[in-house]
């Protein structure tokens, strides 16, 4: 839903909006490999309309241009890996060219939004009804921090909250909790994948929006009943389930786009607040993109697996 903007003066500059975004999601808290912050745009240009989206795809950029957005805020980076050309013969080159030609600035909040509190995983935990929340783990920013010019210097040990752990109001079965996850998240072609005993009791939950199969040690150490994340690969999952001997922690893969997309509305609301606006107020219009950047469109044969939903889980051990 758009915020009405009957009075667009005085204008905000891109510098103002970037400062507000980076007060919420500091660049120094991003992983050292990440590429966050302002990608395109003139810090002095006025900002009247801001579009939020998960991915800076060509379709999303077209939406920003057609709506007249001055700033596109995305979770995923456009230029995560180095490029030597932005010619329009490549999708990334066409994206950069379209943004510059239209005067649409692009700002990225990725791992700095992941570790923020509240951030991507907090929003996911809230959506699942988790209380008594705490970080799944805390750690520095990789190289220990960044100096005044943004150069890693190892001198400032930023403590970042990675993932969230919380409790349900009452215990439920794993099958029932999977239904809670499905109801809380937007539908996707891949649905919700679950590994564990459907009748197993679930009370404590760990979550991480986006890819999370590199956090199994933290999940085991947390003592939770189930871990909700995305992009779970065959071998890490098989090993994790064998370590659990078929018991806890159970695993739920809820999809990358789905687990992170909830952050967009929250980030939008927090930016509006940081800019000093009451909800539905005056100085800028904001909206969340209507374009789903979930890449999968359909699956075949998934229903056959549901017939075995009640089968005992062996954790990969025969």
Automatic annotation (TrEMBL):
Region of interest (Disordered), ranges: 133-158
Tagged with keyword Mitochondrion: no
- Keyword Iron-sulfur annotated: no
**Which superkingdom is the protein from?**
Bacteria
**Assigned keywords, A-Z:** Metal-binding
> One of this protein's Pfam families, by short name?
DUF34_NIF3
Record text on subunit structure and interactions: Homohexamer.
Record-stated family = Belongs to the GTP cyclohydrolase I type 2/NIF3 family.
Protein's name in the database: GTP cyclohydrolase 1 type 2 homolog
Native species: Terrabacter tumescens
Taxonomically, what lineage is the organism? Bacteria, Bacillati, Actinomycetota, Actinomycetes, Micrococcales
């Amino acid at each position: 839903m758009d915020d009405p903007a009957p009075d667009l003066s005085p204008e905000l500059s891109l510098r103002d909006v970037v400062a507000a975004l980076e007060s919420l999601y500091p660049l120094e808290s991003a992983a050292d490999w990440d590429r966050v912050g302002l990608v395109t745009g003139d810090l002095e240009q006025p900002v009247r309309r801001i579009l939020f989206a998960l991915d800076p795809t060509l379709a999303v950029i077209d939406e920003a241009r057609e709506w007249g957005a001055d700033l596109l805020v995305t979770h995923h980076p456009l230029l995560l890996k180095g490029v030597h050309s932005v010619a329009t013969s490549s999708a990334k080159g066409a994206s950069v060219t379209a943004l510059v030609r239209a005067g649409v600035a692009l700002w990225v909040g990725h791992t700095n939004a992941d570790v923020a509190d509240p951030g991507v995983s907090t929003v996911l935990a809230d959506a699942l009804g988790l209380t008594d929340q705490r970080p799944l783990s805390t750690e520095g920013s990789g190289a220990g921090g960044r100096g005044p010019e943004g150069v890693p210097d190892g001198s400032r040990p930023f403590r970042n909250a990675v993932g969230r752990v919380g409790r349900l109001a009452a215990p439920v079965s794993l099958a029932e909790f999977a239904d809670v996850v499905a109801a809380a998240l937007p539908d996707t072609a891949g649905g919700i994948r679950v590994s564990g005993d459907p009748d197993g009791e679930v009370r404590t939950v760990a979550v991480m929006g986006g890819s999370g199969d590199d956090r199994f040690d933290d999940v085991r150490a947390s003592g939770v009943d189930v871990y909700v994340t995305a992009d779970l690969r065959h071998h890490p999952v098989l090993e994790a389930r064998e370590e659990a001997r078929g018991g806890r922690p159970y695993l739920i893969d809820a999809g990358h786009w789905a687990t992170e997309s909830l952050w967009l509305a929250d980030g939008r609301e927090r930016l509006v607040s940081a800019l000093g606006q009451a909800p539905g107020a005056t100085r800028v219009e904001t909206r969340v993109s209507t374009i789903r950047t979930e890449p999968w469109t359909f699956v075949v044969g998934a229903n056959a697996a549901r017939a075995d939903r009640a089968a005992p889980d062996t954790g990969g051990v025969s």
